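agent: user wants the full assembly modeled, not chains individually. Plan: 1) parse entity lines 2) check alphabet per entity 3) run joint structure prediction 4) return tokens. Steps 1-2 passed, two entities, 532 residues total. Proceeding.
--- entities ---
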Amino acid sequence: MSRTELTVLKIGGSVITEKNGELAARTAEIDRLAGEIRMANVKSLIAVHGGGSFGHPTAQKYGIKDGLKEDSQKLGFSETHHVMTVLNGLVLDCLIWHGVPAVSVTPSSCIYTESGRIKHFDDSSVKALLKMGFIPVLYGDAVLDLKQGFTILSGDQLVSSLGTQFNAERIVVGVDVDGLYNADPKVEKAAQVFKHLTLKELRELQSKLSTPTSRDVTGGMFGKVMELLPAVEQGIPVIIVNALVPGNISQALEGKHVEGTLITKE
Amino acid sequence: MSRTELTVLKIGGSVITEKNGELAARTAEIDRLAGEIRMANVKSLIAVHGGGSFGHPTAQKYGIKDGLKEDSQKLGFSETHHVMTVLNGLVLDCLIWHGVPAVSVTPSSCIYTESGRIKHFDDSSVKALLKMGFIPVLYGDAVLDLKQGFTILSGDQLVSSLGTQFNAERIVVGVDVDGLYNADPKVEKAAQVFKHLTLKELRELQSKLSTPTSRDVTGGMFGKVMELLPAVEQGIPVIIVNALVPGNISQALEGKHVEGTLITKE
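--- prediction returned ---
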């Protein structure tokens, strides 16, 4: 399958929301990132953002990820989806204000999962938007699930699915640290960034970093990276960069070298 | 096909937004209506709202209904869809605050049209939400169109499609006047409400009221009613009531008699 000119961009929830505080958006960061996306002027782009302090606390409060167990969770599902649409609205506000022809696509309206994994994705809207030169914007969302009623679909699973489905040229992942570290950089001062990892090296790391008995020592980043494995296996390079550093996202989108972690098949 | 216990509720954009003024929501009305929906506690409900001063001025400014003719319209499409998601967000805010397990379903994410008519509707999300006891909330939206790039999908076409597809027990339409009049009640003081119309009477009216050479003398309401014809033909009664009168929507949802226009097949 030949590569397309499509880039899939993921912006982590931790970049666009305050970690401490519920429903606290970093509107200045969102605005700057919208400007960077405008500036990069990529030919074909899908953007996905995470939930940060919008999605996570609400989803956790009602146990949405583990599915419907009691009726009282239903309003929690409504609320979790709703707060994600609010965060998405702030992102779209900034993109449109910057002149980016972005159109939000609501995951829960066209995707359902089975035991937490995407089972059905009516991608006709994403496909048509891309063809017309629009930038579809999706997000981690509370979605319906065939087995457990509902669950949380992470932005990372969505990115991997979109990347492989549309055979992207590359995936750019913007996070709030400098890449994938060998330890949690927010705790370990000596933690070091992996500059380049192959699929083989990543798999070797997997057995070291995330055995069932040990917690994810990279501060949660490794689990997110593992979601992107199907895309890497398909030959799509993944570049993880610090989206809080001005210029990083626009340069990564333009294909310029940016400090971070590059993950390739070989 | 036997009737289900499903009610489809349409709330006109003129009810929940100020006509004079762009992007001006009547939040007090939205809040009251959310409370009425809560109070009615209908077993199975789909709600649809119009765009009013959110959707219409933006759509008109960029000529979205007539399709993509020049590149500059693209940002207009983005904007039109975005302002509709903002209005929908205000509606969902109120519904959830009132304890209604409502979940917004984004029309443009699961529907596309051909020459302005629904061609594809992935209704798996609406179906699953209903089955789980959620209230799916949809709205008039800027959608993609196979023939003309994009267009506006009216809330009325959506209501008719949902009503027939799910074989609703009835359709309740909330507007800002007392029903369907024989003249524009906002202009003609002597205008009279039709209390009951059959399909045959409606068709007779059609030739009188909306010949190609005459404008819609009912103030635009007749065109909206004609959108609901497929549902009426399928035997689904349509009740048009004044949603600005407190109690009307909750009573109509409960199946109680409310002054307005009843349209039935026979």
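agent: reporting back. Chain A touches chain B through 40 residues (CB under 8 Å). Residues 75 and 225 of chain A are 31 Å apart (CA to CA).
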